[in-house]
Design a protein that fits this description.
Structural class: alpha+beta
Strand content: 15-25%
Largest sheet: 6 strands, antiparallel
InterPro entries: TTL/TTLL_fam
GO molecular function, one term: tubulin-glutamic acid ligase activity
Pfam family, one: TTL
Organism: Cyprinus carpio carpio
Family: Belongs to the tubulin--tyrosine ligase family.
Shape: globular
Number of helices: 15
């Protein structure tokens, strides 16, 4: 049995020595901005402390919707918030189409994974010319019409009679992929979860599971008689859950909603190239985020001026990539959701989404000491401004405190690296693939800066070089 240490005073009377215990901090999370209970469950499982709804100083801030730039600008360096500024450039359907069109013009071979798209009313004439060319060749295609900023399948329709399109309304028109890969005769799409932890430099992770979402009517090639059968043509869960044929079977290989983990095993069992499938999906995701990178980086630097490249990012984002496979198993990008649902209507939702959230918070590597360290740095900076450069004690190389901090930093980096290697898709370990991505990044920045003010071009001069120095 360990006894507390004692000392004797001059009279020989022993007294206890009270050793001062080091106060242990804790991580706080403000989840007032989310309606999803699974977020709170994961916060508790990570042993984060739920902050008051009005607490703006929490280590983690989680919001379902995107946040104002002013909010990001006000955050302290130790804080993390789950949205980047500028990500709407690939998450709004019209913005995605516009930005993708520029990269397709620059890099057509690398950006062949999005269906032909027109933004109305601006590109109405181009669409009409395309249709005339189809008629001249005696071809007929089906097109899908989507609201420019819609979600959950609202307002989507299929057309083959192009004259019925309203010319003045704001929407997008895409070629319909009429030869999809089918599962038991049903059309389906795949929801992948992507984590972006930094834009300066870019860091991207792909979660190794997700959702397979199936239509609820057997698929047939579109014709005039079945264009309105949305349960056949659309794979949105929010649409198909209303069909009486929707199956809520919790067995892994049954039901209208399944896991990508199950689908991967299905591919392997049927002798498909699983490594190529995941490699193709990873490339699609990275190439899409390369399109967004100049916009996100510029917006982030506007919010956080003076923050050196490579420093910890205030922002992170979990994105939902919706991808469909054609009959040759080629992935095609449908859309990106910057506020993916974390609803848990079924057990499969709970299992997959809980895994996404747990892995996200582990990869962020938030520490209770982050806040203390940041406050200490602010105090030291204030002293420097008040009393001059020599007023604060510097840690010299070789001192015990310097060595301790260096050891802690190295250990933290190693812990984070071991977690990241299993999921990271950018930057990749493959040097040839990295060179290709860097070439695409360079093209994306050139496209972004073309025709912009000289001051902006100077400000973002060679950002790729600076990012490479931080990888």
């Amino acid at each position: 049995m360990n006894m507390p240490p004692t000392l004797s005073n001059q009279n020989g009377v022993k007294r206890k020595v009270h050793t001062k215990k080091k106060k242990k901090g804790f991580i706080t999370a403000n989840v007032a901005g989310t309606k999803y209970e699974i977020v709170r469950i994961v916060i508790e499982e990570m042993i984060f402390h739920k902050a008051r709804d009005d607490d703006e100083t929490a280590n983690l801030i989680w919001n379902d919707s995107s946040v104002q730039h002013e909010k990001i600008a006000e955050l302290r360096n130790y804080q993390r918030i789950n949205h980047f500024p500028g990500m709407g450039e690939i998450c709004r359907k019209d913005c995605l189409a516009r930005n993708m069109a520029k990269m397709i013009k620059s890099q057509p071979q690398e950006y062949s994974f999005i269906p032909k798209t027109w933004i109305f009313p601006a590109e109405c004439t181009q669409f009409q010319n395309y249709v005339k060319e189809l008629k001249r060749k005696r071809k007929q295609k089906t097109f899908i019409v989507k609201p420019a900023n819609g979600a959950m399948g609202h307002g989507i329709s299929l057309i083959r009679n192009y004259e019925k399109l309203p010319v003045q309304d704001h929407f997008i028109v895409q070629e319909y992929l009429d030869k999809p890969f089918l599962m038991e005769g049903y059309k389906f799409d795949l929801r992948f979860y992507i984590l972006v932890t930094s834009c300066d430099p870019l860091r991207v992770f792909l979660y190794n599971d997700g959702l397979v979402r199936m239509g609820t009517e057997k698929y047939h090639t579109p014709n005039e008689s079945n264009l309105n059968q949305l349960y056949m043509h659309l794979t949105n869960y929010s649409v198909n859950k209303h069909n009486e044929n929707f199956e809520r079977d919790e067995t892994v290989d049954k039901g209208s909603k399944r896991s990508i983990g199950w689908f991967t095993e299905f591919l392997r069992t049927n002798d498909y190239d699983v490594a190529k499938f995941w490699g193709d999906v990873s490339e699609l995701v990275v190439k899409t985020l390369i399109v967004a990178e100049p916009h996100v980086l510029h917006a982030y630097r506007m919010c956080r001026p003076g923050q050196p490249p490579g420093s910890a990012s205030i922002c992170f984002e979990v994105l939902g990539f919706d991808i469909i496979l054609d009959r040759k198993l080629k992935p095609w990008l449908l859309e990106i959701n910057r506020a993916p649902s974390f609803g848990t209507d079924q057990k499969i939702d709970y299992d997959v989404k809980k895994g996404v959230l747990l892995n996200t918070l582990k990869l962020l590597n938030i520490r209770a000491s982050d806040k203390r360290r940041n406050l200490a740095q602010q105090k030291a900076e204030a002293q420097r401004r008040l009393y001059g450069q020599g007023s604060t004690r510097k840690l010299t190389a070789g001192s015990s405190e310097w060595e301790r901090q260096r050891h802690l930093l190295e250990r933290r980096r190693e812990e984070l690296k071991s977690r990241q290697t299993r999921l990271r898709i950018y930057p990749p370990d493959d040097k040839l693939l990295l060179e290709k991505y860097e070439s695409l990044l360079s093209a994306a920045f050139q496209t972004f800066l073309a025709g912009r003010a000289a001051s902006l071009q100077k400000e973002m001069n060679n950002p790729l070089k600076r990012m490479k120095a931080c990888t």
